[in-house]
């Protein structure tokens, strides 16, 4: 049956591609004419933000924030038009004209969508790239800021730090992640155990809905305001900007990173970490990065677990805390490095030799992983036994030299234990010990072997099944994974079909998301392979 479904999907893709040429030519011209006539007095303004394949800047713009080269191949479907709006009117015009001429919209903030859903579609489509809508207006006195969705988290961090070195915002670590996409799915980072997710610290928003209306928190209502803060991007409208609550950071933070191989008891240490890290004070951010390396003794490949921590305070206090809570790790005074908050951001981005201005760099330079990546995620509620970790090591050691496998274990706990799982659509709260991010990456010259790496990832994911959350097996919506379920390409997806992936991301919050979608976008204009579907026959 699975093979039949796969064959039907392939047939549909082929059919779409055959229809694409004839449909897109007319749609393209009609769409452009519609944009120019939407506001005749502003036609010269909107001309400046429209890019088609005949435009010399089209390819550079499209590629500028594609973070995963799996979705930038000669066979990857390209948008008929890219619009880079300068104002809300340009967004409204694009929505109106896309609806009128049957085009899908994909909205791109930072381009980090793990499945490329912010800039790829299998039907004729338009990309709204928010690169020009990225202002960050900081109000130090009220400890708030209005942030446009096109800003990267690096730009947000920089602009806040520019105004106050003791204020910041709980957002992801990596500087090129788009703030709009991050908040839409939750957004965790090095402050989330103390202050919660990005989405937990949003107090207002400005959204353009499927009817082109501009809504704020009051006019959109609490249901829609709830849904856009963690319900995933691309389902409810286009959020232009977010009003965020700023949080306090101290003048001094302390960073610690130590690596331990299997020969240095990495298995036992990671096993112990599962009990220690989720119960550390809220001021501690703790992650273990697991990779492979050559053992110094004989050059054979071994597993390396790197224990990384960031503490909101001084080295002496953190050192005493770790000696008390995790003496097995064997940390010494030299392992604790004091620095400013913004210096810690640079360090965790691998940019410790750069100045803070590098946070404004939106380019793909300084990336840590090779450019072709497949990722998955899990949440863990019971500590894995040592024997299970040993099985994980065997899988990691199978990866050939052409691939780079990196797994990250992010400790939860802290304030996440205190926030109800229905507070926002993001449900992975109380009882979660840690989140796992699985990643396999490879270089362009290895792309012919991409299926081998993806098969390896599936095998690893299957192995981990008994040791992670169950019923549902939870996943993080900001780590999109179409292999856990997907909507139909034509957009007519049943509630039952979408529930397969929807409950993994949102648990029982999925039902409320469907209710909000049905109320606000019943004709399902905003859609993609994992967008929330309307359900006209469902009850609230």
UniProtKB/TrEMBL annotation:
Classification via Pfam families: BBE, FAD_binding_4
Cofactor(s) listed: FAD
Keyword list, A-Z: Cell wall, Disulfide bond, FAD, Flavoprotein, Glycoprotein, Nucleotide-binding, Oxidoreductase, Secreted, Signal
Flavoprotein listed as a keyword: yes
Subcellular locations according to the entry: Secreted, Cell wall
Single GO MF descriptor: FAD binding
Residue span(s) of domain FAD-binding PCMH-type: 75-249
Residues making up the signal peptide according to the UniProt record: 1-25
Keyword Secreted among record annotations: yes
PROSITE patterns according to UniProt: FAD_PCMH
PANTHER family reported in the protein's UniProt record: OS08G0158400 PROTEIN
Family: Belongs to the oxygen-dependent FAD-linked oxidoreductase family.
Protein's name according to its UniProt entry: FAD-binding PCMH-type domain-containing protein
UniProt organism field: Gossypium mustelinum
């Amino acid at each position: 049956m699975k093979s039949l479904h796969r064959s039907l999907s392939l047939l549909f893709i082929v059919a779409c591609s055959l229809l694409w040429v004839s449909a897109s030519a007319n749609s393209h011209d009609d769409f452009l004419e519609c944009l120019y006539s939407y506001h005749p007095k502003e036609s010269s303004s909107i001309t400046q933000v429209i890019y088609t394949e005949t435009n010399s800047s089209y390819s550079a713009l499209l590629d500028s924030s594609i973070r995963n080269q799996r979705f930038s191949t000669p066979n990857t479907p390209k948008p008929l038009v890219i619009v880079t709006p300068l104002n809300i009117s340009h967004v409204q015009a694009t929505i109106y004209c896309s609806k009128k001429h049957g085009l899908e919209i994909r909205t791109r903030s930072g381009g980090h969508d793990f499945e490329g859903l912010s800039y790829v579609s299998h039907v004729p489509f338009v990309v709204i790239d928010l690169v020009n809508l990225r202002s960050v207006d900081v109000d130090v006195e009220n400890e708030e800021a209005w942030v446009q969705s096109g800003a990267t988290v690096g730009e947000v961090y920089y602009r806040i730090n520019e105004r106050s070195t003791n204020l910041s915002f709980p957002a992801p670590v990596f500087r090129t992640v788009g703030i709009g996409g991050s908040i839409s799915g939750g957004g965790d980072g090095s402050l989330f155990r103390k202050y919660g997710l990005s989405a937990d610290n949003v107090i207002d928003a400005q959204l353009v809905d499927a009817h082109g209306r501009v809504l704020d928190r009051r006019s959109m209502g609490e249901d829609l305001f709830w849904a856009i803060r963690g319900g995933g991007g691309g389902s409810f409208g286009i959020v232009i900007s977010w009003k965020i609550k700023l949080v306090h950071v101290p003048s001094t933070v302390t960073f610690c990173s130590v690596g331990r191989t299997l020969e240095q008891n990495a298995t036992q240490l990671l096993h112990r970490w599962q009990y220690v890290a989720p119960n550390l004070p809220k001021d501690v951010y703790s992650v273990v990065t697991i990779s492979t390396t050559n053992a110094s003794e004989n050059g054979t490949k071994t597993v390396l677990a790197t224990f990384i921590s960031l503490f909101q305070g001084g080295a002496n206090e953190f050192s005493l805390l770790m000696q008390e809570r995790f003496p097995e790790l064997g940390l010494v005074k030299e392992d604790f490095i004091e620095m400013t908050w913004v210096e810690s951001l640079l360090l965790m981005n691998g940019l410790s030799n750069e100045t803070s201005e590098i946070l404004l760099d939106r380019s793909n330079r300084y990336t840590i992983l090779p450019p072709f990546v497949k990722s998955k995620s899990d949440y863990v509620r019971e500590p894995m036994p040592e024997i299970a970790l040993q099985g994980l090591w065997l899988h990691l050691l199978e990866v050939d030299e052409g691939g780079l496998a990196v797994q990250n274990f992010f400790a939860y706990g802290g304030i996440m234990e205190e926030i109800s799982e229905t507070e926002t659509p993001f449900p992975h709260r109380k009882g979660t010990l840690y989140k796992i991010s699985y990643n396999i990456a490879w270089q362009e010259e290895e792309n012919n072997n991409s299926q081998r790496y993806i098969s390896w990832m599936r095998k690893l994911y299957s192995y981990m099944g008994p040791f992670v959350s169950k019923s549902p097996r939870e996943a993080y919506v900001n780590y999109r994974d179409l292999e856990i379920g997907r909507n139909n390409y034509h957009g007519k997806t049943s509630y039952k079909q979408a529930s397969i992936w929807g409950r993994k991301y949102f648990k029982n919050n999925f039902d409320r998301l469907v209710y909000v979608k049905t109320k606000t976008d019943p004709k399902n204009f905003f859609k993609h392979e994992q967008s929330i579907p309307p359900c006209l026959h469902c009850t609230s």
